[in-house]
Design a protein that fits this description.
There is one protein chain. It is built from 1 helix and no strands. By secondary structure, it is mostly helical.
């Protein structure tokens, strides 16, 4: 009977070893499953953050493009205003030139104008005489 006890004891020990190996294997598989689930959750979290950051980056790019377009528009407007300012300045110069020409014409026509009086344009001496030419009309240019 001694052998039967050893055989039963060997089978029991073998069964305990098999159960222990199976339990360890299941624990390992469960730990692996838990780790994979944690990795999936972490990956999903990273994807969500990545998408959020991508949307933020796209929004910033759109804002930058809008700011650049606004800057270009401002440059175009500044160029237009600069051209307009130059044109108005040229027109002002032309008007000033015409005004000076008329002042010279007036000084040339005015018999009372004295260029030596004080050096200012348009100075004239009051003439009380009435000896004008018959064809002179005040305000008109002389006919040539």
């Amino acid at each position: 009977m001694d052998t039967w006890i050893w055989i039963v004891l060997a089978v029991v020990v073998l069964a305990i070893i098999v159960v222990a190996v199976l339990a360890a294997s299941r624990r390992k598989k469960e730990q692996e499953r838990v780790r994979r689930e944690e990795n999936r959750a972490h990956a999903a979290d990273l994807r969500a953050r990545g998408e959020e950051e991508d949307l933020t980056a796209r929004q910033r790019e759109a804002d930058a493009a809008a700011a650049e377009a606004q800057a270009k528009q401002a440059r175009v407007e500044a160029d237009r205003l600069e051209r307009e300012a130059r044109m108005r300045s040229e027109q002002a110069g032309q008007v000033r030139e015409r005004a000076q020409e008329r002042m010279r014409d007036a000084e040339a026509l005015d018999p009372d104008y004295d260029p030596a009086s004080d050096g200012t344009a348009g100075s004239h001496v009051e003439d009380t005489s009435t000896d004008r030419d018959a064809g002179d009309i005040p305000g008109e240019r002389p006919r040539t």
